[in-house]
Amino acid sequence: MLQRLRGPNLSFILGSLAFFVVVQILISTGLLNPYWQNILFWGAAMTMVSLGLNLIYGFNGQFSLGQFGFYAIGAYASADITYRWVRNDPSALVVVIFGSILALIFMLGISAFLRRFYGVATLTKFLFNLLAAVLGFFLAVRFINPAIGQPLYQALNGFPQGISQQIVFFLALVGGATLAGIVSYLFGIPVLELGSDYLGIATLGFTIIVKVLLDNTDTLLPFPEMKGARGMVGIPKWTTWPWVFVCFMAVVLVMRNLLHSSTGRAILSVREDERAAELVGINTASTKILAFVVGSVFAGLAGGIRAHDMAFLHPTMFGFLPSFNPLIIIVFGGLGSMTGTIITGFFWIFLLEGLLRLYLPEGFETWRFVVYPLVLLGMMLLRPQGLMGRYEIAFLRRPLPSLRVVKETPPTPAVAPKAEEVAV
Fold this sequence. Notes:
Layout: H1 8-29, H2 34-59, H3 67-85, H4 91-114, H5 122-157, H6 161-191, H7 196-215, E1 232-233, H8 241-259, H9 262-272, H10 274-279, H11 284-310, E2 312-313, H12 325-333, H13 338-358, H14 368-382
Antiparallel strand pairs: 1-2
Helix pairs in contact: 2-8, 2-11, 2-12, 2-13, 3-4, 3-6, 3-7, 3-11, 4-5, 4-6, 5-6, 6-11, 8-11, 9-11, 12-13
């Protein structure tokens, strides 16, 4: 264990802790004003979304434009939990948490059951898993919430207010990320069988569907507190720098360890040659769904962080044009490079929402949709591999095994048989 904390690992840990302490001091002393805090938190959230897309597209090779849809699901789900909680209503917390647990249990059971049969149709898998998820949330709404809603609310309020708030916020973030993962799994079962271009169109359609549903949450969906196209207000502003740092580091560490595992090698093999991966025994369908779900969970977690920083949500924040931001970030940074995505994600928000708004002439930010294509065109012509290519810092790079010197033993000289052992 101590050997693993040497070299790049120790440098990364110490550097991250030093960065956390410096930023916390700047915030505590007021040197980092609320505007630049918002830029920093926004950059972390957008980088988390982009890392998830890089896992799906850059490392697994599945072209997706649906990342902002899962970002929106995580944002609205976590915001609804805390919005109702501060108004003495624990129903959203109970339904999202326990409904997700039951849905996951039922879907795992369905998957184990269907594995006993050969050649199960994709539509059958989708319908069975959809019914399992619906059953889980129905049981949570119909039975679990009336039974334990108020006792759970009283139990959590028995803690000091600060501790109770942090517990609820943690559960809200986990619930939003889990719900985004469940939806991505159900959506990915039929859609991930499509080719690259068709997959991109299908996932873009998913983002548009989510945006339309959010526009009508107070009419088509039974969520009047979200206020539809008017925007959701009254969300508790609970996002702090420690929460942003912990969530961001969790995403980086989970993705790094996943890519360095045998599962990560399977994910990369699908990108390189899906047919060859199938021939060596890799279940490419499960591998693609795994990468898709993990990337969507990252987006859902980032949505919860962003929602409780803005304290306001509007469907236009997750519309058609903003959904291209993660794709632009990973193309700029380099497909298949975590380092490039991290650097470009923070720089992208710092440039567009910081420098362009403060130091360039008023109205210049409206030209961003003209600047985007020109910059992307120049990038594709001059450096198609992105700014960082596939370069990784030492901590994120796969460590090479240490060389071992094997001492060669001299061959044992042959012993001639004795004269009496030779057959005459």
